[in-house]
Amino acid sequence: MSEPALAVLFALLAAVSNALATVLQRKAAQNVPQAHAFSFRLMLDLLHTPVWLGGIAAVICAAACQALALTFGSLALVQPLFVSELPFALVIASFVLHRRLPGYGWAAVVMVAAGLALALAAAAPHGGRAQVPADVWAYTLIAATGVTAGCVGVALRRPGGRARAALFGAAAAIGYAVTAALMKAAAITFEQEGTAAFFTDWQTYGFFATGACALFLLSNAMQSGPLVASQPALTLGDATVSLILGMLVFHEHIRTGWWLLPEAVGVLLIVIGTTILPRVPYAQTLR
After folding, report:
1. DSSP sequence for the chain
2. What is the pTM of this model?
3. pLDDT in tens, 206-259
């Protein structure tokens, strides 16, 4: 099996694991008191919830698969595949809740799958550099921190509801995209220089730190409002920011010219599908 095919396989396995984590964590977060929002008491409450711990186990599995995917493929190829988390999450939730996914829900799943296939086949992400200069990392982390802080600041001034959930979801998306970029750098170090270099590389500890922050923001997005607001912001935001980081930080390339037309059609299908899926009736029970 070729390296791009392995990257796609492990990325999809990671998406399934993350989808399972989303379902389990949302079921846990819905029982947390509103007064504990955006505080470490929120995390303490969740740590005493077995369902949430099961979600964390799924997150760890997803991280391992994601690291393998980023070893075999580019950031611009791997991260957009995580858009499939949303349809996977709804399908898993349909079994957990013993409810059937309605016809328009399945149509949306097909739209997301077809859109991903079309967009990635047309874009054909390729290239990229293994070593990223320190100043590029510095600018990237400063910019990401600033935008994330802005999203959180606005979210904290909003009451619980869709706007607050979407803003926290967008902030979490930036965190997960930066985590993936740092994870890819650490994976390259592991592949080229071995275990010792991996554990002395600052990017290794960087992706653990940013991943923890992103998880904290995601927990608050889940607690703040409905899936219809937070999940599209998370999935589409992660894919978009990751694509930008892949191009600007790792110098990855996608095809342009007339290829932009099928890429745009694919993206449109993804956006429509990810907008429809959270409106499936039982999705609202995962608030």
Report:
1. --HHHHHHHHHHHHHHHHHHHHHHHHHHHTTS-GGGTTSHHHHHHHHT-HHHHHHHHHHHHHHHHHHHHHHHS-HHHHGGGGGGHHHHHHHHHHHHTT-PPPHHHHHHHHHHHHHHHHHHHHH--EE--S---HHHHHHHHHHHHHHHHHHHHHHHTSPSSHHHHHHHHHHHHHHHHHHHHHHHHHHHHHHHH-HHHHHH-HHHHHHHHHHHHHHHHHHHHHHHS-HHHHHHHHHHHHHHHHHHHHHHTS-EE---GGGHHHHHHHHHHHHHHHHHGGGSGGGGGG-
2. 0.81
3. 999 999 999 889 888 877 877 777 878 888 899 899 999 999 999 999 998 999
